[in-house]
Write a structure and sequence with these properties.
This protein has 134 residues and is an alpha+beta fold. It has one domain: Sufe protein. Chain: A. Helix content is 44%, strand content 19%. The chain has a three-stranded antiparallel sheet with strand order 1-2-3. A hairpin with a 6-residue loop joins strand 1 and strand 2. The longest helix is centred in the C-terminal third of the chain and has 25 residues.
Length: 134
């Protein structure tokens, strides 16, 4: 595993924000839970800001590190800023990844985006039937 940066190894050995948010405001999944890498991201949102983020993952060391650092990049960001986090932001925060592991960063970025989109869909659904303010 000497192909990974010390930052990757730190996030693999000590992953941040692992777990579930039971009363989450949004949840996103990517991958196949029956085979291969799988990520489930939970977010808690207050005043349009991600105040908490947790995840469950099954994957290789690079995937675990990418999910962990993604949570650090996203927490405290407003939803627009968090939607802008992409795979290369994750790679940069980890100090790089081997070329053949770059796809792992997409798992974290996409899982985050899906959780945000799920939150927005739930929010819009909650507004149905309400009269818009004039």
């Amino acid at each position: 595993m000497n192909e990974y940066t010390p930052i990757v190894m730190d996030h693999f050995n000590n992953p941040r924000n692992v777990g579930i948010i039971n009363n989450h405001d949004g949840m996103g999944e990517i991958g196949d839970p029956n085979c291969g890498d799988f990520l489930r991201v939970f977010i808690k949102v207050e005043d349009n800001v991600i105040i908490a983020i947790r995840y469950q993952i099954r994957g290789c060391p690079a995937s675990i590190a990418c999910a962990s650092v993604m949570t650090e990049l996203a927490v405290g960001k407003d939803l627009d800023e968090a939607m802008m986090i992409d795979d290369m932001d994750i790679v940069k925060a980890l100090g790089g990844l081997p070329e053949y592991k770059l796809h792992c960063s997409n798992l974290g970025a996409t899982g985050l985006k899906k959780a945000i989109l799920n939150h927005l869909a739930r929010y819009m659904s909650s507004l149905k039937g309400q009269n818009p303010k004039t």
